[in-house]
Every structure is written in structure tokens, then in C-alpha cells.
Amino acid sequence: MIKMEALMRRILSSFLLLVFVFIALNTFTENKYVYAETTQKDTTTQTSTTTQTVATEVYGTKVTFSDVKPTDWFYADVMKVSAKGLVKGYEDGTFRPDDKISRNEFLAMTLRALGYNNLNVEDGQDWAYPYIQKGKELRILAPDATDAYNNYFKKYDMVRILVAADKDRVYPSNLYDYQNQILWINQMSSDLNLVKAYVSGLIKGYPTKNENEMVDLGYYDFVTRAEACTVILRLLDKTRPTTKLIENPVLPVVPQWIDPEIVAYQGSKVYEGEIFTIGILNYKDYLIPNKEYKELDESEKYKVTITCTNYPEFNTYYSFNPLNGKVALQHRDRTIYIFKPTQGEIYYVAKLNNTGEYDNFIITDNMTLSFKITFEKNGVSKDYYIDVPIEDINNGKTITCSN
After folding, report:
1. The dihedral sign for the CA sequence 184, 221, 331, 370
2. Helices (H), 119-154
3. Residue among 286, 352, 282 nearest 319 (CA)
4. d(CA 172, CA 159)
5. Which long-range contacts (CB under 8 A, 24 or more apart) does 380-383 make?
């Protein structure tokens, strides 16, 4: 009897072990994404380099990212493109949808979408080299192109790649009529690739308040990883309809007063020595449609004055970053006008070789800089306040305005 009970326990133990192994194997099969981190050099400028993380994976049937939620507008697009193996995740399980994408990463996505999934990288080659060569071979890139492919790139670059890849698309005979419904088209040198991408439905622009409004295609905006997924799916959809032509497009109405969404964030790694930038998230709301700065009336301009309320050093002198001409430390009499679609930054602080009364002034982690930002228009002014803890900035946090 005792021997029979021992035998039964062994049989039960073996059965439970088999069940456990089956569950484990099934779980592995359902989550086949395996990440291996590699790095590449970022040659954004000749004066500084940073390291950008790129991930490679074994493609599988189930994709999950900790920072991509079902409620996100890009959720379905990211999931579809990832499942197809056209875009890559990161070792920490994130997708980083709002991160900027580089030209070579987008080129790789495009070529994978066209069926070029197994381009070989020889020893010593950069991972993107075969994609660049294939892009030139297919004339998606110009054969003599020497662009800095590792740079983050903007939508005017993206549409050139998309339109070249969408080579079988047939465009309507009234293609140029669509220019009348695109904002800022006169400042874009009437880029035909932009018009083609819009007419063919590859890009749609930002939402408008009514169907007759002219559309802003964000020509000068950087491309994010989430946006890249969306346009790649459109490229794959050969049945996508032609954009509707608006007979009498109207300009968007600009409110008399717009409150800024002010933030402070860590400086770009492109510019050596940058500490932080203060910018306006909704800067596009301040643009007067289809007008350049020289065409604005004084009544259409906002004057912005920035004052540091707890460190007078920031209000008594200024310096310029020789790399890009941005203000490093703001002069008390200097004001800034918001006028161009390429601008969102209104204040910039960098570590420079200072001259003058405050040669020994050093910004340290334990500082919190307090700023009063005054907006003025047509004799009406309003103050906004933001506190910038340097330690939080150095840790990559974005600081929002307190009012």
C-alpha cells in the first residue's frame, strides 16, 4: 500500500512538471520578441556626437510595449507595423512613440515595407549601409546623395522618401490645384513631393476646425516613431483614396489672445554645453496663416519678455552660442517675437565662456531658477511663471508652467 502511494505521488509530480513546461513553452511562443541592443554614432553635428540606441529583434506573433496603450491614437498602427517586423522596439520593453526617428531608421522601415527584409551587413559596416545603398539603387534616394542619414529628420525629407517609394501611384491631372488648400506652401518652394504626398493620402496634416479650412502639414516638424508607423501603413495601402479637393479653402481663424503652454526641458544633445530650453508647446497657435514675419501688422505680434526673478545674473548680460546663434543668457532689454513655424523655443541656457561682471557664475544642480515670462499684444500683457530645478532638468524631466 505504501509503495502504491509513493508511485502515485511520482506520477502526479511528473504530470505537474509536464504541465509547467507546456505553459512555459507556450508563453515563450506567444512573446517571441527578443531584444539585442546595439549602438550607432550620431553625427548630427561635426562638433559633438552622441550615442543613439537601436534595437534588433526576432520577429514574432505578439507584440507588447509598456508605453503604447490601447487608448493612444497610434496604438493600432504601432502594433500592426511592429508585428510585421518593419519597426523595432527597445531592450527595456518600450517603443518610445514620441521619440524622433532618424532618416536611416525611416529608410529601413520603408525598404522593409517594400519587401527588402534581409539586407546583409558586412563586418565593420554600419547597420544602415545596405539600406542606404539599396535606397540609391531603387532611386528612393538620389544616387549622389550624401545626407547625414543618422540625423533626425523632418517631414519635408520624409515625403521625398515616401513619394519615391510610392512609384506606381497615379496622380490627378489637377495636382497643382491642391496647393491652394495647403498652409505655408509659398514658404516651402512649392515642393511637389509635399503636394503628391498630401494628394495621395500619405500625409493628412493636423486636424482642422471645419472641412473647408486650409491644412497645416507640419512641413518643418520632426517625424516621430509613431508618425512613421502611420505613414508606412498608408504606403502599404494601395487602395487609399485621393484627398478631397476643397473648392474654396479658407484660412483658420486666429483668436485675439492665446495663452501659452510653457515648458522647460533638457537641452538638445546636438549643441554642446546646452543646459535647458524654455519653449512653447502650442507655438503654432500663434502663427498667422500664410504670413511671414515681415508681413505681420504690429497688432498681430506677441512680444515676449523673460526675467529671471531669483538670479540677477540672467538679466544683466547675454551671450550667443556660436554654433547656432541662440541666446544663452538673456539680456534684460531683449525681447523675443514669435513669428515662424520653425520656432518653439523662446529661451536657451548653455555653458559658455562668459565675459563681464559674472565670469565666475556657475549653474549647479541644487539651483532652482524662477522665471517670469510676460506676453504682450496690443497694449494687453499677462505674466506667466515657471520654476526650473536644474537637478530635475538634468534627470530629463519636463517642467510645466505654474499658471
Report:
1. positive
2. 129-137
3. 352
4. 18
5. 380/257, 382/257, 382/259
* Nearest-5° Cα angle at 314, 308 to 315: 80
Cell numbers 549647479 label which residue? 364
Label residue 153 left, alpha or beta by phi (over 0 means left) and psi (-120 to 50 means alpha).
beta
Burial class (CB in 10 A: 0-12, 13-18, 19+), 245: middle
**pTM of this prediction exceeds 0.85:** no
In angstroms, the Cα distances linking 103 to 42, 152, 162, 283, 370 are 11, 6, 12, 25, 38
Q: Which helix (H) or strand (E) holds 71?
A: none
Nearest to 330, CA basis, from 305, 361, 354, 363: 305
User: Do 188 and 198 meet the contact criterion of CB atoms below 8 Å apart?
Assistant: no
Quickly count: other Cβ atoms within 10 Å of residue 341's Cβ.
Answer: 18
pLDDT digits (tens, 9 = 90+) for 334-366: 344 443 434 577 776 765 444 444 455 677 889
Render pLDDT for 372-394 as a digit per residue (tens, 0 to 9).
988 888 889 999 999 999 899 88
Q: Buried (b) or exposed (e) across 252-279, using 16+ Cβ within 10 A? A: beeeeebebebbbbbbeebbeebbbbbb
- pLDDT tens readout for residues 184-236: 876 665 578 999 999 999 999 888 888 899 998 988 888 999 999 999 999 99
Taking alpha carbons only, the member of 399, 331, 335 closest to residue 368 is 399
Cα→Cα distances 6→3, 14, 19, Å: 5, 12, 20
Amino acid at site 350: A
Q: What is the b/e burial string over 177-215, where b = at least 16 CB atoms within 10 angstroms of the residue's CB?
A: ebbebbbbbeebeebebbbbbbbbbbbebeebeeeebbb
Q: What amino acid occupies position 122? A: E
